[in-house]
Amino acid sequence: MRTYAPKASEIERKWFVVDAENLILGRMSTEVARILRGKHKPTFAPYLDCGDHVIIVNASKIVLTNEKAEKKLVHRHSGYPGGIKSQTYADLLSRQPEDTIRRTIRGMLPKNRLGAQMLTKLKVYAGPEHPHSAQQPETLVLKDAMAKA
């Protein structure tokens, strides 16, 4: 029996909408990264971008557990000596909630051109509205255990 190897022309992509309201950041991000990568499909190949498009709405209402919002730091570096800047997740969530989710999911994707290509299929919006209704996205319901009690 031969192993099935999918071709790029055979890949079918769907659109999914995730409502991030009251979901835990890390748990939601792992599920979204799995869908962007295409691991939920039986035709998954690690060398191809066979994942689906994901739209995340209500990014400003995401939750971090165990006071991580105040304790955990996000770093960025300008490339110059002494150019490191740090801020808490709470600050980043209040200023740029879309960037918080995008950074978290980016860390769960491959660190190469394939991962960058997968990240282009992620759309994040702070509010409940998105301009992708023409794609007729399906609502992706993540497990109830993911919501903070």
What keyword list fits this structure?
single chain, 149 residues, alpha/beta, Ribosomal Protein L13p, Chain: A, four-stranded parallel sheet, two-stranded antiparallel sheet, 6 strands, 17% strand
Map the helices and strands.
Elements: E1 15-19, H1 25-37, E2 53-57, H2 68-71, E3 73-77, E4 84-88, H3 89-95, H4 97-106, H5 113-119, E5 122-124, E6 138-139
Parallel strand pairs: 1-2, 1-6, 2-5
Antiparallel strand pairs: 3-4
CATH superfamily of the domain at 13-64 and 96-144: Ribosomal protein L13
Output the CATH class name of the domain at 13-64 and 96-144: Alpha Beta
Q: How would a textbook summarize the main sheet?
A: 4 strands, parallel
Run of helices and strands: EHEHEEHHHEE
**Rg calculated over all Cα atoms:** 17 Å
Which structural class fits the helix and strand makeup? Answer: alpha/beta
Number of helices in the DSSP assignment = 5
Explain what you see.
This protein has 149 residues and is α/β, with parallel strands linked by helices. The chain is 28% helix and 17% strand. The longest helix has 13 residues, at 25-37. 20% of the residues are buried. The mean pLDDT is 90.
Short account of what is shown:
The chain is built from five helices and six strands.
